[in-house]
Amino acid sequence: MANFINEDFLLNSDVAKKLYHLHAKALPIIDYHCHLDPRSIYEDTKFKNIVDVWLSGDHYKWRLLRANGVSEEYITGNRPDYEKFLKWAETVEILIGNPLYHWTHMELKRFFGIDSLLSRDTAEEIYALVNKKLENFSARRLIEMSNVEAICTTDDPIDTLQWHELIRKDSSMKTKVLPAFRPDKGLNIELPDFLGWIAKLAEVVGFPLDSLTAFEQAMESRVEFFHSHGCRLSDHALDFVNYEKASRDEAAFIFERALRKESLSRSEIKKYKGYVLVFLGKLYHRYGWVQQYHIGALRNVSTRMYNVLGPDTGYDMINDISFAVPLSQLLDHLDQTNELPKTIIYTLNPRDFESAITMIQAFQGEQVPGKIQFGAPWWFLDNIDGMEKHFKALGNNGLLARFVGMLTDSRSFLSYPRHEYFRRILCNFMGEQVKLGLFPSDEALLGRIVEDICYYNAKRYFDF
Fold first, then answer.
1. How far apart are CA 327 and CA 362, in angstroms?
2. In this predicted model, what pLDDT tens digit does every residue of 279-310 receive, in sequence order?
């Protein structure tokens, strides 16, 4: 069946078609949160075949292969690449209803010009065609083909940022590639690898971290270092929002207890994390950064498979935590001294949309439009239902027109059609609201809002 992904894919009204083709389609992409490897970008990695670029490391696809009963040897194991691809083709054939059915065919169409639906019957031909075209493609070429203006990777504070430095000096690289500060290991005081990470941080900064004062000095030095390399964002995986107000003396005592390998109570863990989040928030405010809070993932729920494969392999889920009280207290702590930085709050459970959106409206201000953002629907929510619920919830209790738009949150260089997917869904949503008489049929107004959400809001907000 040819042309499933046609020019009006997902656009179900004349208004939607005009908004997409005249206002959204040609805009550059600002991918302000992803997990691309900066070394691969600098070295302009070429890919062995479609499995290398498409299936390796993609836990979105791994989960669906397992759901289809595919043996792990065809997923993370050592079976031949074509056999792995064939298992994915057999899975895609019955993947209707899942966004990866759309993403798969959009990626085949946009990068490789393939209109055929992927299935067991078409797998051999598509595998050969894609691999032939990949001979002339590379990491940078895929970025260029996608019209990407800026990329923000996700980087540990101990990272040397050597690849970012080399990219910055490379005049042939037209896309900005900037680091983002991800200090989770410095907050997770209860985890076994905390002390090992503290030791590595001490090596990087060149002095012992034998007190909270030394730790604060080390983190500030790393923020300054990242800032000098173009970083303007931090990112925190707050699977649980741990915040309990603590004095500096309390936090110092807890830090020293951790250094002595003493067991910490749940309250002590919350106090330490709350103190450090406030310390870092004030630091971000001083440097003019944006902080991101990703809330609500329950990770590595299969102990058996975690012991075999480790983290980030597809054994995560949506959590059902309550975060309204601790998160509002955290934001309020920063806001009391007017040191709350620009903040993006992502919630993984759609049940929590309204709670998060009404919370952020209580902390807007400082003449910064959309200072506190409700983040893009991510991970399990970057589908049609998740995006439309996001638009409606934000419109009901906030300013949809100030939303900074989509991201990939991906490790794959083939993921950029997700921005197109988002733009098409946004334009179709606008068209549907016009059809219902809820939005005016005013192309100039709606077109400007679409352009802002797809590109200009992010460009102004992050100010790279």
1. 12
2. 999 999 999 999 999 999 999 999 999 999 99
